Structure formats: structure tokens, C-alpha cells
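Mods, move this if it's the wrong board.
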Amino acid sequence: MLSLELKQEIIDKHKRGVSVSDLAKQYGRNMSIILTIIKQKAAIKTVKPSKGITIISKCSSPNLEEMECLLLIWIKDKEIVGDTITETIICEKASTIYCDLKAEGFGGDAGESSTAPTMEEFKASRGWFQKLKRRTGIHSVVCHGEASSSDT
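Not the wrong board. C-alpha cells:
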């Protein structure tokens, strides 16, 4: 994964005339990765990540980005109050926030073609939660199941 800042740096250097092969050598990446970044430069330049997010792996829907931003605020509030929050509680809250945003019509997902894959099928799964933790740096969440009974 390349950070958003690194992707923007690659785009800027390419604009200044640095060749793709030179960029690939400089950053130790395959040329296809550099070409993909350059091809997606318009989307990368317009991304405004939520506070705390350092890695953008793909462009997601406005509803999803807004939901994650609101979820991070909710998590911080819960941490300040001292409430215990688990992965299950966070996933349920994420689903609730996302449904509320979709119902309000935020982000314009409703106008998309029904044949195009959309985030309307958003599921706050364990995999999504693990990726959220990696993107945002959340680490003080209480685990459940076997992980909660392990020796700290």
C-alpha cells in the first residue's frame, strides 16, 4: 500500500516530466503500479480523507467515507466517556450510520445505475473492521470471542 501523500508525490513528479520507469525504480515499485496511479490521478487528487486516514486503497462512495468519518467521531466520544466498545458494537453502529446517510440521500448513491456495483450492499464485516483499523490506526477496541480470553 502506498500512502496518499506518496501517490500525490508520484503524480507531481510525473507531471514534471519524470518517466514512469524512473519513478518505478525510485520508489521500488512495478511500472504497472505507477501507471495505475497516474491513470487514477484525477480521483487521487480529489480525495479528501477523513482525519486519521493515511492510506487510501481505493476510491469509495461518499456515503462510506462520510460514515467512516462519523464513526471515528463516535468512537472518540465513547473513548472520552470511558465506555467499553467492541468490534460488534462498532460494526452495528457503522451499519446504522450508513443506513441513516443513505436514507438522507447523502452522497448521491441513489442516482447510480442499478447494474453498477455500489456500496448499497455495505456490510460491516470483520474484514471491513480490520481494514478500518489499519486505515485509521484504531487500536483500543475490546476484542471478543477467543481474542478476548487470550493472555494479555
